[in-house]
């Protein structure tokens, strides 16, 4: 097991499977009201350069469930905001904490932090990946379909951070992914090549109906990610025709589900009818952030999975 979780590829296929099995057990324990304080007296620092609802609350509630503690750290309130170097922050916090989660604009910031941190570092979203999201998504897909292996997943919209982690995950799970994006917003070639080199099956196309044909899962995300706000007008133009609506969902397999990492912009990347409709599993996805991250935290902070007696 790697020290850090910066990319979904920091777990191999076996580790993904074990982490999700642990997450499912932790979910059952929580539902039954059974204590599972596996990280008693451990502390997680959470550095957020950008906004968050799900990531912040699921990590904080997860640490509380596990008997530990989470600290919300706004860089503007830290010496980081006054120019202290990342490498100095990383070494100081390593002396107090048992793990750090960072949401940053630049992936390189998280990589630099991890280089100097002697405790596990978790990527809570960067410009290139959102591995915690995709770990929870694989769990949600497994709950729904039994196994992700052999499933077809269609990504419709921006080839962004969530899309990248999903593409990379296809190398670990056996899912085949088709991405429909306007040519200027396709996922980065190096991400696709990396996924293919690791055994992933990826198809890139332009028209959403081509991607969703025979799909078991349709996945979309906002057209204007955090940090892309200045491009809003041109993105709105470029993504016209990429809305996941009922007509598009009808073109997928009959039992297809619709996923969205949230937050959603109804009427842009997804219609209200689809988000609230029978195919949508977005609230299960959001819930599973909690369970998947708890399982991840236990592995990273203890070096082991959830013990059998739990
Ligand atoms: N999906 C997700 O990461 O949501 P937040 O931005 O609310 O954390
Ligand atoms: N792609 C989105 C995901 C938000 C959870 C963003 O980066 O803003």
UniProtKB/TrEMBL annotation:
<dbReference type="GO" id="GO:0019240">
    <property type="term" value="P:citrulline biosynthetic process"/>
</dbReference>
<dbReference type="InterPro" id="IPR006132">
    <property type="entry name" value="Asp/Orn_carbamoyltranf_P-bd"/>
</dbReference>
<comment type="similarity">
    <text>Belongs to the aspartate/ornithine carbamoyltransferase superfamily. OTCase family.</text>
</comment>
<dbReference type="InterPro" id="IPR002292">
    <property type="entry name" value="Orn/put_carbamltrans"/>
</dbReference>
<dbReference type="GO" id="GO:0016597">
    <property type="term" value="F:amino acid binding"/>
</dbReference>
<dbReference type="Pfam" id="PF02729">
    <property type="entry name" value="OTCace_N"/>
</dbReference>
<dbReference type="InterPro" id="IPR024904">
    <property type="entry name" value="OTCase_ArgI"/>
</dbReference>
<dbReference type="GO" id="GO:0042450">
    <property type="term" value="P:L-arginine biosynthetic process via ornithine"/>
</dbReference>
<dbReference type="InterPro" id="IPR006130">
    <property type="entry name" value="Asp/Orn_carbamoylTrfase"/>
</dbReference>
<dbReference type="GO" id="GO:0004585">
    <property type="term" value="F:ornithine carbamoyltransferase activity"/>
</dbReference>
<dbReference type="InterPro" id="IPR006131">
    <property type="entry name" value="Asp_carbamoyltransf_Asp/Orn-bd"/>
</dbReference>
<protein>
    <recommendedName>
        <fullName>ornithine carbamoyltransferase</fullName>
        <ecNumber>2.1.3.3</ecNumber>
    </recommendedName>
</protein>
<feature type="domain" description="Aspartate/ornithine carbamoyltransferase carbamoyl-P binding">
    <location>
        <begin position="3"/>
        <end position="143"/>
    </location>
</feature>
<keyword id="KW-0808">Transferase</keyword>
<dbReference type="InterPro" id="IPR036901">
    <property type="entry name" value="Asp/Orn_carbamoylTrfase_sf"/>
</dbReference>
<feature type="domain" description="Aspartate/ornithine carbamoyltransferase Asp/Orn-binding">
    <location>
        <begin position="149"/>
        <end position="299"/>
    </location>
</feature>
<dbReference type="Pfam" id="PF00185">
    <property type="entry name" value="OTCace"/>
</dbReference>
């Amino acid at each position: 097991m790697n020290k850090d979780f910066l990319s979904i590829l920091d777990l191999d296929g076996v580790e993904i499977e074990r982490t999700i099995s642990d997450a499912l057990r932790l979910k059952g324990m929580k539902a039954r009201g059974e204590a599972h304080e596996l990280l008693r007296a451990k502390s997680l620092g959470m550095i957020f350069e950008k906004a968050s609802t799900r990531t912040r609350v699921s990590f904080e509630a997860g640490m509380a469930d596990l008997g530990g503690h989470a600290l919300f750290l706004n860089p503007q309130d830290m010496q980081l905001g006054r120019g202290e170097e990342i490498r100095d922050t990383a070494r100081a916090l390593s002396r107090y904490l048992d793990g750090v989660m960072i949401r940053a604009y630049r992936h390189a910031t998280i990589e630099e932090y991890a280089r100097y941190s002697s405790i596990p570092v978790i990527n809570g979203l960067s410009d290139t990946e959102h591995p915690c999201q995709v770990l929870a998504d694989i769990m949600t897909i497994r709950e729904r379909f039994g196994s992700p292996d052999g499933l077809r997943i269609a990504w419709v919209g921006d080839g962004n951070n969530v899309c990248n982690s999903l593409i990379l995950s296809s190398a670990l799970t056996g899912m085949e992914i088709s991405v429909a994006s306007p040519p200027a917003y396709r996922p980065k070639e190096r991400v696709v090549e990396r996924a293919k080199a690791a055994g992933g099956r990826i198809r890139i196309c332009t028209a959403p109906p081509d991607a969703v044909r025979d799909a078991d899962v349709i996945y979309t995300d906002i057209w204007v990610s955090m940090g892309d706000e200045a491009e809003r007008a041109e993105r709105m133009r470029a993504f016209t025709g990429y809305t996941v609506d009922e007509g598009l969902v009808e073109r997928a397999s009959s039992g297809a589900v619709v996923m969205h990492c949230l937050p959603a912009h109804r009427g842009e990347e997804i219609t209200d009818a689809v988000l609230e409709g029978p195919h949508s599993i977005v609230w299960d996805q959001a819930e599973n952030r909690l369970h998947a991250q708890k399982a991840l935290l236990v592995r990273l902070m203890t070096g082991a999975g959830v013990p059998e007696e739990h």
